[in-house]
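Handout, section B. The chain below has 286 residues.
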Amino acid sequence: MPKNLLQAKSYWLGSVSQPPQAAAIDDVVNYVRPIRLRASSPIDKFYQDRGGLIKLAQQSLLTQNPNLGPLILVGIISATENYLRSIFSRILQICPVCRRVSATKNMELGSVFWHAGVEVERGAFEHLSFSSSDEIKRTAKNFLDYEIREGSSIAGALKAFNDVCELRHCIVHSHSLVSGKNAIRLNIRRLGSNMVVNLGVDQLHECALICSSLVQSFNIELFKEMCQRWAVDWRQPKTRNYGNRTELFDRIWNIFRSKNDVNLGIVGSRLSQNGCRKLVEQTYRK
């Protein structure tokens, strides 16, 4: 027992848990590595990231490691958010309509310093969270001048994505414990005093399919929008001299075209780049 008041305080404070240890990151460089974001189209980067995560969704691994399923889901949603950041920033680089509507938007100075003129457009979305449909719709409107309308494939995919993001909220903010707000939004029937997110192989594949559907919807719908702008809006006096039209279409094509889907033979039509450009011109020719 302590002999004086100073010792007494130290003694009773140590009765509930061990004292904290001093800790800090020794060298943050050891925690990162370089990567080429432009090596592939945003959708193919998503496929790559999603594929690496879904390979971990094996029942034996999930049974042995109950925390693995929630982490996989968080990774899949993160890959989805990264697709949106990438596709939005790549569109900003080429579309004069987007540049006009987003010209007055603010960007954190730290983003400007970090990107140093290379893909600086990506910095416009660093302070935004794409884990809710409202934020995604607002960003598409404010930066791309693109309105996601009810009844569109994107709107439908966003509704399903919202449910997945509610599960993510439970995982990230309360270690998978389902909160009342999330339970009500998900329309979960109460089965006990406490409930946790429980993800097996089927649930992870279902969530991956929902995220994939959202990405694919955005890829098709935004490609359509950019082709229309290329054929119509970019011909207007204000943007007529924006650049070589063939080269501009090449840039659109390379942003949206999935080599992965083409190689698997699961694209809707196997048009060449030139063939697609000619059909787009015919579609919007007045």
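Note. The radius of gyration is 24 Å. Compare this with the example in section A.
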